[in-house]
Design goal:
- The protein is an alpha+beta fold.
- The protein has four helices and 29 strands.
- The protein has four domains: about 70 residues, Helix Hairpins, CATH 1.10.287.470; about 120 residues, C2 domain (Immunoglobulin-like), CATH 2.60.40; about 120 residues, Immunoglobulin-like (Sandwich), CATH 2.60.40.10; about 110 residues, Immunoglobulins (Immunoglobulin-like), CATH 2.60.40.
- Strand 14 and strand 15 form a beta hairpin.
- Helix 1 runs antiparallel to helix 2.
């Protein structure tokens, strides 16, 4: 047998098995209906016999044992008949998710209400097929109730339960009636899976949550609800606004409880906004809030003291607050080193030291610690700095540092540069510094004898000129 023949046989066998499974499922349903008819006939025979035996017992034509045996037989056949009816109905019973509404309660907690409805597969006339047999139905059977429905909310991505309670039990739902399961969301979601467990059946439905139409609220959240920012800088908050309303009102954005020295603005994609409106079918908007701190602290804006403020969304039509969120900003002082010198140009001669004063000032708003002053010098040069380390320097304070520069004894004349470098920390963070460059002009050294000879020669020349001039004047 070649390969193509083998593949064809395998395909035909698969099709045959699929047809047999479909037929078996249909046969099972048909067999259940036949069993139900047989059970109905057995029940009717047992009931007729019981009625006849009741008359015979009243006439004392049969014994008590015969009568009890007839009654027990009737009860047994009735139970068998009811079991088959319930089995058939349970196969057709079905729970539908009528609504899934996301809303907020008075405390601002996110909640989801699931409305379930009991129905029958196929058509709603199914139970009417058994109306002629309702004489053996209990009241619960006549209602077509589905008992013990367990409901859970499952996250679509992680497949974990995100509703509290983790499992909500509905005792029963009558056919055509509905029941609610109310949950608190443990994790915010726009869509989720509703898991149903009933009648030994598990059903899962991926649901997009509706917003509660009876509320006119805006939920405002920010993951970076508390931030630190240096004075003179800004802090950025990602703000998410979620609408829990069916209306398409305009909302005005506002910030409360910030000192007047602190300014702010809302941006949407880089553009400043003061009002928002949700487009049709859109319930979430993401904005950015920029908060600008002043350069200096004062009584209202103090370094390291948290400032709490509120972001609010107000209805533009009547000014009613639709939602708010509390945020926090912590101003941090910033250390800044300022290095000044009266003169950054010096002249000297080879081997002769030169001294200059350098003022180191804390121009920031936080104490500077471990300020180190050093010099980057050419090869062969020496420097002496006193003090080399300033242990601490409060804001607006300064200290004078003496820098001594010594050029080498042997070296050519010319200009050289020396960099005065500083480094420090403020609140365990390294502070940015600015280097200062000192330019030094080195002149060649001259001997004393040579200088004296030049002076004597100059005097002699000058004297000769004077003497020659006097001679000429006498003539």
């Amino acid at each position: 047998m070649n390969r193509q023949t083998t593949q064809l046989c395998t395909l035909l066998l698969s099709i045959g098995l699929a047809l047999m499974q479909a037929q078996a499922q249909g046969d099972t349903e048909a067999a259940l209906l036949l069993d139900l008819r047989k059970a109905r006939a057995d029940f009717q025979v047992a009931r007729q016999k019981y009625e006849n035996d009741t008359k015979l017992y009243e006439e004392k034509a049969i014994s008590v044992n015969d009568f009890n045996r007839s009654r027990n037989e009737l009860l047994s056949k009735e139970v068998d008949y009811q079991k088959l009816i319930l089995k058939l109905i349970s196969r057709q019973s079905y729970i539908t998710v009528d609504q899934a509404v996301k809303y907020q309660n008075e405390r601002g907690a996110r909640k989801v209400k699931i409305t379930l409805m009991s129905a029958l597969e196929g058509n709603g006339e199914y139970l009417r097929l058994f109306e002629e047999h309702f004489d053996v139905f209990t009241p619960e059977m006549r209602s077509g109730k589905i008992y013990n429905i367990y409901v859970s909310l499952v996250d679509n991505e992680s497949k974990t339960i995100i509703g509290s309670p983790y499992e909500f039990r509905i005792p029963a739902i009558e056919l055509g009636k509905s029941a609610d399961a109310d949950f608190e969301l443990l994790k915010d979601a726009e869509s989720l899976t509703v898991s149903l467990n009933y009648n030994n059946r598990k059903d899962e439905k991926n649901i997009y949550l509706k917003k509660g139409a009876g509320m006119n609220r805006i939920d405002i959240t920010s993951m970076q609800f508390s931030q630190e920012a240096d004075l003179g800088s800004k802090a950025s908050y990602d703000v998410t606004l979620e609408r829990f309303s069916a209306s398409d009102d305009i909302y005005r954005l506002d910030v409360q409880n910030l000192p007047r020295q602190i300014t702010y603005d809302f941006t949407d994609g880089g553009s400043k906004v003061t009002q928002i409106r949700f487009a049709q079918g859109v319930n979430i908007k993401k904005l950015s809030l920029q908060v600008y701190l002043p350069d200096r602290d004062d009584e209202q804006v103090t370094a390291d003291r948290p400032l709490k403020f509120r972001v609010e969304a107000l209805s533009a039509s009547d000014g009613v607050k639709a939602g708010s969120e509390q945020l926090e900003i912590i101003p941090r002082g910033k250390g800044r080193i300022e290095v000044r010198a009266n003169n950054l140009y010096l002249e000297t001669t080879t081997g002769k030291e030169v001294t200059m004063d350098v003022a180191v000032r804390n121009g920031g708003s936080r104490r500077l610690d471990n300020i180190k002053i050093s010099a980057e010098k050419p090869l062969g040069w020496e420097t002496a700095i006193s003090p080399g380390v300033i242990r601490s320097l409060e804001p607006e304070k300064e200290e004078t540092v003496k820098v001594t520069i010594i050029p080498p004894n042997e070296g050519g004349a010319g200009a050289q540069e020396i960099k005065i470098k500083t480094e420090a920390v403020a609140d365990n963070r390294k502070v940015e510094t600015e280097d200062k460059t000192v330019r030094i002009q080195v002149n060649a050294a001259t001997s004393v004898a040579g200088t004296a000879t030049l002076i004597a020669l100059l005097i002699a020349v000058t004297g000769g000129i004077v003497w020659f001039g006097m001679k000429l004047s006498k003539k």
